[in-house]
TrEMBL record:
Residue ranges of domain FAS1 in the record: 29-165
Domain of life of the organism encoding this protein: Bacteria
InterPro entries: Adhesion/Biosynth-related, FAS1_dom_sf, FAS1_domain
Name used for this protein in its record: Putative surface protein with fasciclin (FAS1) repeats
Amino acid sequence: MISRRSLFAAGGGALLLSACETPVTLDGRFPIMDVLGTQSDLSSFRAALRRAGLDELLNGPGPHTVFAPTNLAWSAAPEAFRNADPAALRNLIAAGRLRTPDIAARGNRVRMLSGIDIRVVGGTPNEPRIQAARPGAAPSGASGSIIRPNILCSNGVIHVVGAVLVPA
């Protein structure tokens, strides 16, 4: 008979424990960083958050709303973003759990942790087009569509965006 002790001693402990892990799902039970880890097209953004030390914030209680650029969008991002500057990455994180209807209820405007605003400037209800704006100014700079909205997490919401939003 194999005891637990002999199983662990033989190296089977990791196998036994891995069988007990719950896979991360997109049903609102897991924190933002875990959910970002399930999305292969967001890996560059997730890696930058970790390098910037913002992973602790996004694994915490929150809630937060994250506008996560795809890897393709990330490749065209300004250097401060690609170099994981925490101040730049705060342009993509807002306090609160804001789904697209919540954003609409706020006059299509979200204040980010950096102090800039993200505003809905067009698109469709299913793929709103958003653009960054400095406080008190009109939207400027690149715009992008929310291509996968309202990914629920235990500590917030992720919106996948086809651009890195920076006011001009």
